[in-house]
Task: structure prediction
Amino acid sequence: MAILICCPCGLPLDCENIDLLIDATCPRCKRSLDLEFEDEAGTRRRAVLTIMDGPIWKGEQFVMPIGQQLTMGTGTDGWLSLEGEGIAEKHCRLRVSTGGYSVVEDLDTDTGTWIDNARIAKGKLFPSQSFRIGDYRFRLDFRSTLGQNQPAVSVSDVGAVALTQDKTFERLRHVSSPLGILVQRRFVYARAALTTFAWTTAAYHAVYLRYAAEPQWPGYWAVIASAIIVTILLASTRLVALVHRYAKYAGIASLVLLAIVDLAKWQLHGAAIPPLVLAAAVSLAITRTPGPAGALGAAMLVVGAVIAMGVMTLNLVLPLLPI
Ligand SMILES: [Zn+2]
Result:
C-alpha cells in the first residue's frame, strides 16, 4: 500500500522507512510534524486517511500529522491537492488532536462535506468512519504503531455511529496478488526506476561526450554535463510521489527535456528513446490509478527503458576498455 506523509503545506516527505517514523520535519516550511498520538489506554497510534473512492488516488493512504490543520481541495497549497468535480479550491479541513479527537470542517462549499448521509459544517470523525467531498470518499483509521488496524479505545461516545466493517477497505488492505502489489507500490517503483535511470544515463552521457561526440569534449566538461543531468533527474525524481496537481510531473518533464537535448543538440537519436519510453510509463503509473494491466504495461516499459539505457552504455564503454 502506498502510504505517504504530506506536510500541511503540501510537501510530501521523502521517507524511506515510513513505518519507523515518529515525527518528521518538513524541509520546506520547517514545521515539525507529530505522526503518532497516545490514546486513553496509552497505546501509540497513527491516524491514517485512506481514499476509498475517487477519480484519482484510490487506495492511497496518508498519515495525518497530529494537531495540524490539514486542508484539502483543488488548490495546490493545501495538504492534499485533489482533482475532480464538485471540489472547491479549499474544500474542507481536518484536524486530529493529540488525544485522537478528529474533526472535519467544511469550508463553506457549494457541494458540501458529508459524514455518512449528513451534510456537515463541522463534524466529529470516529475511527472506521468515512466522509465524502465531491466524488471522493475518505476513511479515517487509527492504526496501532505495530501496524494493526484497530479502532481506538478512547472513543467512548460513538453512540449511534455504526462502526461497520467496510468491505472496500478490506479489499484494499488485503491485496496480495503480484499485480495488486505493483499497483499499490507504484510510486516506490517509479522512483527506483527513475533513480536507476538517472545514474545510467549520466554515465552514458559522460562517456559519449568525452569519447564519441564530434568534437570530443574535455573530460571535466563531460563530467560536469553528466553531473547536471543526474542532479536534475534525481531532484525531480523526489517529486514523483507528490500528491500535488502539477509538481508530480517534474520527473516526466525532465525526462522529456533530456530527450529533446539528446535529439536537438547532441544528435543522440537512440539515446533519446529510453527517456521518452520511461516518461510515458511513469505518467501512466502516477497520473491515475492504473488497473493491473496498466501497471504491468507501465512496468514492462520501465524495465525496457532502463535495460536499453544500460545496454547502450555498455556498448559505448566496452570498446574503450583496454582488454
Ligand atoms: Zn511543510
